[in-house]
Amino acid sequence: MARFMQFLFVTKTVWAVLLALLAGSVLILVAGANPIEAYRSLFGEAFFDYYGFGATLVKFSPILLAGLAVAIPLQAGLFNVGAEGQIYMGALFCAIAALYLPEMYWPLHLLICTLAGAAGGAFWAAIAGYLKAYRGINEVIVTLLLNYVGINIVSYAAGGPMMEEGAPYPYSAEIPSGLFLPHIMNPTDAHIGAIVGVLLAIALALALKYTTFGFAITTVGSNPQAARYAGIFVQRQMVATMALGGALAGLAGAFEILGVKYRLFHMFSPGYGFDGIVVAFMAAANPILVPISALFFSGLRSGAQFMQRAVGVDSTVIDAIQGLVVIFVAASLAIKFSDSRWGKILARRRAMEAAVTLGEKQNA
Amino acid sequence: MLEFLDLALITDLLRTSLRLMVPIAFAALGGVICERGGIYNVGLEGMMLSGAFGAALGTFLTGNPLGGVLVGILCGMLGGGVLGLLSIRLKVNQIVCGIAINLVALGLTAFLARLIFGLNATTKTLPGFTPWAISGLSKIPFIGPIFFDQDPLIYFLYLLVPFLYWLIYKSAWGLSVRATGENPGAADSAGVPVYSVRFACVLLSGALAGLGGAYIVVSQVFVFTEHMSAGKGFIALAAIILGRWDPIGALLASWFFGFCDALQLRLQFANPSVPYQIFTALPYVASILALIGLYGRVKPPAAVGVPYQRESKT
Fold first, then answer.
1. How many CB pairs under 8 A join A and B?
2. In chain B, what residues touch A147 (CB-CB under 8 Å)?
3. For residue A242, what are the CA distances in angstroms to A44, A73, A128, A154?
4. Could you tell me which of B253, B255, B247, B251 has the C-alpha nearest to residue B165?
5. Tens digit of pLDDT for each residue in A169-215?
């Protein structure tokens, strides 16, 4: 029994997600559909159907990168809630590099476009990092506000100077076909960005653990005072960490251009940056868990459309369920095993067992 | 640009900025109370959106904007209750709670709006408040039409600000709130019920943010649209800092943002050749610049963001 309770605690995030889905099924019931059928079509199509899974992977890549963009600064105690704006800026920089640089050998050009995207996101996040580090301005508010500015800048670029002549909608010219990212599940749009994202997540997890830079990030996050004594330039580290987060979001934007859209569109992101916040929290900011939680959420997102078609429940219910997941996961993370009644009982039992063994030893 | 010198246009600009200020001001005032009590309210945006939805629902059901306002306030308080439950009882990180509330509000209001009003919700106009000139005062030249020919919720805002000022600085309860936000441990030893004070703060904050959202529905657009709070709750967060956690300061900061918003609408209208995005981004850019330009670092209440854990008796 005790071991079972401990198992429940270790897997509490999973239980929280299931509870959120259960709460979501109430919403589906309210909408007049059968929740079991709705979830079956949602997850069945999103994960166990070739085309559906391809659609899931298309969303997986940006959601994963946005999740990392939130998770890495979170390790340093910084809240980057501006991944959405950083995605837009990354896409803008990438599109500029793709459309206006002189012709060159395509792998080089592709690399430059990718790096330009990362730089765009890094620049946008670094503004918030700088203001936090050197002016003490709350990074939550700055990154939130910068989202709106970034979206407007892209909207201006796509509908103004970069707009394709005669386009019916604000979008730019198509990028050269040599720059298209390789697809991994033809004929779906799933592209190599998904694999790059997973590799980056693993690399970041290793970097956090084994490199000086990673150590500096986690030290600043857990104890800035100690970090200062350890010779870490805390302020510079804050800016660099935010910039790294922004670079990851910028990469998501670049991959959207290079792998899916092939143009810069007005309002092209359906809120991937905000999904990233949810993903990062569910993974408890651990880069190695981010791909798992990102896969779950990209499945929710892509499956929502199938669910809407199959049982007629509006796909906005998925937005609500996503929020519920955050609430339940956040609440579950707050419940500490040692604080719970079971934790206390177990601790007492362990103390008693120790006393008994001690007594046996003394008697022997 | 010369047309700006026209007195009638200036009057109109100021009148519009006052109207655009109201949602931000209500949310910011709620945020001031909340943060004074030691709880960050990043969920203002979601609470505003809930309030807007509640207002549309209440007006739809009762046929009266006043009913809408009441339901809107209740929906905002529901958001505040969730924030309180998570951050005060469960001690979840307050920024996480706020973001969660924003997400749930965004999805739930869109979902329920489609469910209740149907897909053609945006075509159904709801009854709302109309400007209500105060006889006498509204006849004062220049000032009259700006301040005293507005709708009832603006008059309520006029009364609310001095009341909140009194509540925070002069009342016994306000003292408990400030003590709770600065040093909950000391407040607790002095007999202040820290948890209930904080809970009251988040509920009040949710009610005010809900009222701000309701105002958008019953006084500005008369219909509920998805994501209609459109970042005003985040601007309100900036207004709290800019107003230095003070009701009068928050009001002035909100007016500044309302003015930027009114100005961008006017500029957009007068300069169709200039891309509109430059103007729509203006209030957000102004918020960031205002935060940067704030001289002397402002100090938030010392215990804001820190969950209070009472010493356990073991």
1. 131
2. 231
3. 37, 6, 8, 21
4. B247
5. 889 989 988 889 989 988 888 999 999 999 999 999 999 999 988 88
Q: CB contact, 8 Å: A149 with chain B? A: yes
| Run of H or E residues at B75 | helix B65-84
Residue of chain B minimizing CA distance to A327 = B100
Which chain B residues touch A148 with a CB distance below 8 Å? 231, 281, 284
Q: How far apart are the first and last CA of chain B?
A: 72
Collapse the DSSP code of A158 into the 3-class scheme (helix H, G, I; strand E, B; otherwise coil) and give the result.
helix
ipTM greater than 0.90, yes or no? Answer: no
Q: How far does the CA of residue B278 sit from the closest CA of chain A (Å)?
A: 7
Facing B284 at nearest CB: one of A27, A149, A323:
A149
How far is Cα B3 from Cα A206, in angstroms, rounded to an integer? 62
| Inter-residue contact A92 to A114 (CB < 8 Å) | no
CA distance B236 to B177: 20
Q: How far apart are CA A238 and CA A132, in angstroms?
A: 8
Amino acid (1-letter code) at residue B121? A
Q: Quick one: DSSP state of residue B5? A: G
Reply yes or no on whether the pLDDT at B221 is more than 60.
yes
Cβ separation A159–B280 shorter than 8 A = no
Interval A124-148: pLDDT, tens: 999 999 999 998 888 988 999 999 9
**CA-to-CA separations, B37 to A141, A148, B25, in angstroms, rounded:** 19, 29, 18
State how far the Cα of A313 lies from the Cα of A304, in Å rounded to an integer. 9
- Count Cβ atoms within 10 A of the Cβ of residue B125 and give its class: 0-12 exposed, 13-18 middle, 19 or more buried: exposed
- DSSP per position, B123-191: G-PPP----EEPTTGGGSTTHHHHHSEE-HHHHHHHHHHHHHHHHHHTSHHHHHHHHHHH-HHHHHHTT
**Whether A130 contacts A239, CB under 8 Å:** yes
* CA distance, residue B46 to nearest chain A CA (Å): 11
Select the residue of B96, B237, B277 nearest A155 (Cβ to Cβ): B277
